[in-house]
Amino acid sequence: MKIARVAVVVLLLVNSAQVTWSAEPALERELARLGMLSGGTMGIAAIHLESGRSAWLNADESFPMASTYKVPIAARLLDMVDNGALSLSDRVDIGIEEYAPGSGVIAKLLDDPGLSVSIHNLLEIMLLISDNTATDRLLDTVGGGNAVTAHMNSLGVEGIRVDRPTIRLIGDWLGIEDMPSAAGKRWEDYEELVDELPKGQREQAARNFEADPRDTSTPRGMATLLEKIWRGDALSKSSGELLIDIMERCETGTARLKGLLPEGTVVAHKTGTIGRTTNDVGVISLPDEAGHVIVVAFIKNSDLDGPVRERAIAEAARAVHDYFLFTR
Fold this sequence. Notes:
Number of helices: 13
CATH class of the largest domain: Alpha Beta
Low-confidence stretches: 1-23
Strand content: 15-25%
Structural class: alpha+beta
Order of helices and strands: HHEEEHEHEHHHHHHEHHEEEH
Mean pLDDT: 89
Strand order of the largest sheet: 2-1-9-8-7
CATH superfamily of the largest domain: DD-peptidase/beta-lactamase superfamily
Helix content: 40-55%
CATH topology of the largest domain: Beta-lactamase
Number of strands: 9
Oligomer: single chain
Radius of gyration: 20 Å
């Protein structure tokens, strides 16, 4: 892979002598090649923020967002903070019956009632470690999925829709119809629910989930949202900086966008994983004052192992990084 990557960079350097700033089709051809490594369908959006140059792969196809949908939830939340409807210091009570399965620490480590957490702390653990309980409480706090989708529309962001809390989303993927009534169980109880499901039921549920338009985004839609956040068109300066700062400290998915980038590269990102879906979205800071690049990487319908999918995302991110670094 290292030899192939060097060859790509050399090719781009040669091409840069022959074209002007409209050379992005060369990058799109390389992204299409790398997309085949995913084992499924890959969607890519790449936007160089300082120049506006871009490259796309399946840009307007919908993909399950998985936990990357926590970015539009965060954008809605911080907009409400900007407008005075909420304060980051407001506290949210979380009953044990509201614990959600999946990623995070609240449901896994805490089994006693009496939890009260600030919105600021919930926002951080929603993004940093992708905590699903924090996500569901914040989604409820901002008015639910319809409110988030409406906010995206108000920003002029097309192609993003948020519909379900994580507990319902996971339940639909697993084929557990009464997932909401399972809330409040210990972590081990969720595993028992899954073990009791017939294999055929789970497989059919997974197929239905992948075809479901709910909680999906196009690469173009997610990239548009990230661009608006970065440029200050979606949030106040302080809220935008807070969101980017948290995303720069994201602790999940280090083998994806960050996987093959030079050591020390700053990446503000959010990952997402469920079933045959593997995602990572964010902003990469280029060295040598070369600017910043939004990269949205979605993979769906892949039967390859997780590390193989992650490698495909890492290869795409490195190709984008090198292209915009060497074709200024």
